[in-house]
């Protein structure tokens, strides 16, 4: 199973589809889907190909070709059946469809266009000066942010555009594990989002370059990338260690922009009480004021 994508300006669609289906099948046990194993010794983890094919209602030969990356003329109905048999999440189902590109979807490839944030959206971010918020796009690039987000995340987003990328920040910044208290969760979320991008934009040279760079420089990224887990960003809690506020849990909501499905707005807030007071202290700190170290417990 490959873990070092070739830096050839694109990801291999056949390999991506093959490895995704293999890893999804391997995580299912017969008891999970009501398959009788009859006491036979299982030499491989998860379901056998013939068991998965039976659950999906397709021939073993057909499913084998698909898991080998041959998605020629696959129909949306067959993909739906396979998605149900594999117990895929909504994000995983979308990823499967993007990788396989069934007949009902266009196979026409177009170069990814440059991403720009609408001026009105930038103005809205500025108006939300008491709420940390930013817009991000493909490859987890941060495209625009407000002063409150700069106060919370500091140099992690206030940096040159080529480095303003959550994947690079999480896996390559030396202080990332100290800043993100649940680093493992954050890292998994970032890789899951990159997997979605890879399914939709396998021909994106910047994405292929980013994945190649991270694979070479971060063993943790290689491990998570090889798992083929897919996650869409939605909502949850991000726990950070801020130099002024100390340990601070922030709730977040991520909203996909209706006029550009490749951009999303993420907004953070704190629960009323001490956490909200700490967040306000961070946001209200004068620009350029040195951050005092938070007292340790």
List keywords for this structure.
297 residues, 5 strands, alpha+beta, Beta-Lactamase, 44% helix
Would you write up a description of this structure?
The protein has 297 residues and is an alpha+beta fold. The protein has two domains: 88 residues, Orthogonal Bundle (434 Repressor (Amino-terminal Domain)), CATH 1.10.260; 166 residues, Beta-Lactamase. 44% of the residues lie in helices and 13% in strands.
Helix-strand layout with pairing:
Blueprint lengths: L12 H14 L3 H4 L15 H8 L3 H8 L8 H10 L4 H11 L18 H9 L5 E4 L5 E4 L1 H7 L12 H7 L3 H4 L3 H18 L4 H13 L1 H8 L8 E8 L3 E12 L2 E10 L4 H11 L13
Antiparallel strand pairs: 1-2, 1-5, 3-4, 4-5
Helix pairs in contact: 3-4, 3-5, 5-6, 6-11, 8-14, 9-11, 12-13
SS elements, strand count: 5
Average pLDDT score: 85
For the terminal residues, how far apart are their CA atoms?
45 Å
The helical percent reads 40-55%
Order of helices and strands: HHHHHHHEEHHHHHHEEEH
- Rg calculated over all Cα atoms: 22 Å
Largest sheet: 5 strands, antiparallel
Q: What ranges have pLDDT less than 50 throughout 5 or more consecutive residues?
A: 1-8, 103-108, 288-297
């Amino acid at each position: 199973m490959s873990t070092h994508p070739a830096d050839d300006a694109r990801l291999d669609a056949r390999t991506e589809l093959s490895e995704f289906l293999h890893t999804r099948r391997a995580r299912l046990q017969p008891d999970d889907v009501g398959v009788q194993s009859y006491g036979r010794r299982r030499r491989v983890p998860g379901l056998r190909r013939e068991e998965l094919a039976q659950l999906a209602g397709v021939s073993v030969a057909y499913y084998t070709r698909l898991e080998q990356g041959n998605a020629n003329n696959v129909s949306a109905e067959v993909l739906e059946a396979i998605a149900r048999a594999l117990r895929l999440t909504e994000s995983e189902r979308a990823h499967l469809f993007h990788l396989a590109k069934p007949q009902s979807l266009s196979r026409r490839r177009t170069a990814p266009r440059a991403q720009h944030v609408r001026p009105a959206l930038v103005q809205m971010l500025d108006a939300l000066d008491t709420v940390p918020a930013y817009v991000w796009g493909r490859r987890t690039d941060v495209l625009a942010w407000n002063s409150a987000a700069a106060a919370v995340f500091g140099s992690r987003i206030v940096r040159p555009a080529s480095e303003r990328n959550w994947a690079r920040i999480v896996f390559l910044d030396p202080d990332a594990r100290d800043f993100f208290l649940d680093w493992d969760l954050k890292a998994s979320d970032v890789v899951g989002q990159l997997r979605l991008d890879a399914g939709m934009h396998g021909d994106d040279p910047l994405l292929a370059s980013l994945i190649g760079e991270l694979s070479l420089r971060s063993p943790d990224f290689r491990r998570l990338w090889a798992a083929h887990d897919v996650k869409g960003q939605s909502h949850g809690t991000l726990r950070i260690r801020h130099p002024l506020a100390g340990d601070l849990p922030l709730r977040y909501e991520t909203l996909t922009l209706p006029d550009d499905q490749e951009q999303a707005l993420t907004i953070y807030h704190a629960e009323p009480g001490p956490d909200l007071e700490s967040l306000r202290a961070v946001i209200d700190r004068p620009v350029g004021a040195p951050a005092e170290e938070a007292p340790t417990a």
